[in-house]
Design brief:
Heat Shock Protein 90, Rossmann fold, five-stranded mixed sheet, extended, alpha/beta, five-stranded antiparallel sheet, single chain
């Protein structure tokens, strides 16, 4: 709904001037500033003049609506022949015989709303709108009527005065344009001066860079020469110390033996520093040589295990564990440098771990292998996690006095890894430990064998369900590997789309996890192609990406979407959802107590599960082999076969080894049993939970961890 303020008829040329005058007055009364008043008056007079020239007259109506925000509307109508070339005019492709043909499109630019309708031999209607200033209060109907009365009570201004006012506005506009032109000229001069300064600065920076390069070369040469010079006397000191300690020239007193050992220890520490400095100098000078050769990761781990065993002598509360590498082919790179990288990581972990373990592992990620060294030590603060890779940097801690070091081990490891074509990073949390990673290509880049990298081979475990993971980020692949480690799913990694296509030709996964951005590749075409192919269209595809584009992903045919980083339970539950959406899930309860089985079934009453029951261990093992359930809930205390025995037989049998087991018991578990259950059960629940609601929540969490889909 709108309120009409004024209506004018355009019959004579002076009516066009009158329209301009009234437009200015109304705009002023409505609260528009001087600039908007001029724009409105100019726009309205231009369209009114078109109506007079081309249609011999028309009418103009001024109104204000009651919307929020309010708008000032001007409607100009005529009964002329219409505009035959309206589209060309609006596209700016028309030149008028009486002007430039820019009146209509110029008016459209000056207004907030603009509509024009023209019908042949029936006339043209132009509706223009301008939003009222937001700073002013809303105009009531009473105020609009008051403005209308004020306009009716005023005498029309002399047309010549209006023309004079229009000329003054043009002069002011020209003055503003001239002033802006002068400002632009001044700004260009300043930019030219700045540009000359920048050029001079670049020249100075180049000169400084050359000086720094020369200084760096001198430093490297100095370190290299001094390291060589230090080695000879240090070797002599250590040799002489060994001679004295071996009593080759006679016995030593207790005090003398202690002094010689101090000398020997100091020489060994200084020798370690010299060796690190020499290696750093070689890397920086580009003189270090890579000697690639083929070797097994398991052999490398065996060598490191024997080499680093003496470091554990001073701390028996720390265990050094090497996980057996699985599915990693022969590496073709510099074995000595890989060993040096891992040795630095491990010795560093042992120094800063007071109790717990240091765990060394390796996993495949496409054509790369990612080594990890995880400890349960003091951890590293977030602000220091990048600093530790700088030369001579050592983070202050309460262990600093006990563990001396040079601060060169980690920087050297990073440089050696980059030299071998890899990358290094760390994940750490204060008080909980650190994990250092080194990702290396299977074949040293640039070697003779690099051009003929063997095609990836995948070994499918028949007792587990394969999931194809198409992901090129080594950290993410490592995380997924850990997520699936204790589940019944086997992760098959593909680093590129080409590898993913090869994998689909070799085996059929039960699901595909796909990243959209793979290096320089995009996975959209792969996603569409997989869903079009008759052989693969039914494989559920879960897209996991850092970009939140779920709608586009689902429109392309994906079955699910998650945003990185993804939680382990959320991922396993999502995979289970996609895999089991068309299949009834089976749960086997092995418990000799009928009441306990009844209580569990009541907790699961709202979950669509096919529940099987066994009253003893032997029946449970038989049903597990026959029915292959998705999960087993096992009691610990039963006659004949205990829960430990049942679990041991289930995990020893190839048919049932991958079935996740949840222990549900009222028995007090001993430390030895606790260790066994931690390795073979996905969760341990207590029958003595007081609240039924708490028991239901804990059971649901355990089932999710076991890979069951619980959404009802």
């Amino acid at each position: 709904m709108s309120t009409t303020i004024l209506t004018l008829e355009i019959c004579y040329e002076q009516d066009v001037v009158l329209t301009r005058q009234m437009a200015r007055r109304i705009a002023q009364a409505l609260g528009f500033d001087a600039q908007d008043q001029a724009r409105l008056a100019t726009s309205i007079s231009e369209i009114a003049r078109n109506a007079f020239v081309y249609a011999n007259g028309g009418s103009v109506e001024f109104s204000v609506d009651n919307e929020s925000p309010q708008n000032f509307w001007i409607s100009i109508r005529d009964r002329g022949p219409g505009i035959p070339n309206l589209k060309a005019i609006l596209d700016g492709q028309f030149t008028s015989t009486t002007g430039m043909g820019l009146g209509i499109i110029g008016t459209r630019r000056l207004m907030d709303q603009f509509q024009i309708e023209s019908v042949a031999n029936q006339g043209t209607t132009v509706l223009m709108g301008k939003t009222l200033p937001k700073r002013l209060p809303k105009l009531t109907t009473g105020r609009l009527h008051q403005i209308r009365d004020e306009l009716d009570g005023r005498e029309a201004q002399n047309p010549f005065e209006e023309i004079q006012r229009q000329n003054q506005e043009l002069l002011r506009a020209m003055q503003e344009l001239r002033q802006r032109e002068e400002e632009l000229t001044q700004l260009n001069r300043e930019l030219e001066d700045t540009n000359r300064g920048v050029v001079a600065l670049y020249a100075e920076l180049d000169e400084k860079a050359d000086s720094l390069q020369k200084a760096n070369e001198l430093k490297t040469r100095f370190l290299s020469n001094m390291s060589h010079e230090f080695r000879t006397p240090l070797n002599s000191i250590m040799s002489l110390s060994r001679i004295l300690l071996d009593r080759m020239d006679g016995p030593l007193t207790t005090e003398q033996e202690k002094q010689v050992k101090f000398i020997q220890k100091g020489a060994e520490g200084l020798s370690e520093l010299v060796n690190d400095l020499l290696d750093l100098a070689k890397v920086e000078a580009g003189k270090i040589v890579v000697y690639p050769s083929q070797f097994e990761v398991s052999d490398l781990f065996g060598t490191l295990r024997g080499m680093l065993r003496p470091l554990l002598a001073h701390n028996s509360s720390v265990a050094l564990i090497f996980e057996e590498p699985v599915g990693i082919p022969l590496l073709y790179t510099d074995e000595g440098k890989v060993a040096q990288i891992l040795r630095n990581f491990i010795s560093n972990a042992l120094k800063y771990t007071e109790q717990g373990e240091v765990r060394v592992a390796a996993v495949m990620a496409g054509n790369r292998v990612t080594f990890s060294v995880a400890d349960t030590g003091i951890g590293i603060a977030p602000q220091d996690q990048e600093r530790i890779f700088e030369d001579f940097v050592q983070i202050e801690s309460h262990l600093q006095q006990r563990v001396k070091g040079t601060g060169l081990g980690l920087p050297l490891s990073r440089k050696l890894t980059e030299l071998l074509g890899g990358s290094v990073w760390v994940n750490s949390e204060l008080g909980k430990g650190s994990t250092f990673f080194a990702s290396l290509p299977l074949v040293f880049p640039g070697s003779a064998e690099d051009s003929s990298i063997p095609q990836p081979t995948w070994q499918i475990d028949p007792a587990r369900h394969p999931i194809l993971v198409v992901e090129d980020n080594a950290e993410t692949v490592f995380a997924y590997e850990k997520y699936f480690q204790e589940s019944k799913y086997q992760m098959i990694s593909a680093r590129t789309l080409n590898e993913a296509k090869q994998a689909l030709m070799m085996f059929k996964p039960i699901a595909i996890m796909l990243d959209i951005l793979l290096g320089k590749e995009h996975s959209w075409a792969f996603l569409a192609e997989t869903k079009r192919n008759e052989a693969t269209r039914n494989i559920p595809i879960l897209v996991i990406s850092v970009v939140d584009n779920e709608k586009q992903v689902m429109a392309q045919g994906a079955d699910g979407f998650l945003i990185k980083p993804v939680d382990r339970f959320l991922l396993l539950n999502k995979i289970s959802t996609l895999v089991k959406q068309d299949r009834q899930q089976k749960l086997l309860l092995i418990d000799d107590d009928q009441a306990s089985r009844y209580v569990l079934k009541q907790l699961l009453v709202h979950i669509p599960l096919d529940i099987l029951e066994a009253a003893d261990g032997r029946e449970g093992i038989r049903l597990a082999q026959l029915e292959n359930p998705d999960c087993i809930v096992l009691d610990m205390t039963m006659p004949e076969l205990s829960g430990i025995d049942v679990l041991d037989q289930l995990k020893s049998n190839r048919v049932t080894t991958s079935i996740p087991v949840i222990v549900n018991t009222s028995k007090q578990i001993e430390s030895q049993e606790q260790k066994f259950l931690a390795e073979h059960a996905v969760a341990i629940l207590s029958k003595e939970t007081l609240s039924q609601e708490v028991a239901r929540v804990l059971l649901r969490e355990a089932l999710k961890k076991a890979g069951l889909f619980l959404d009802t």
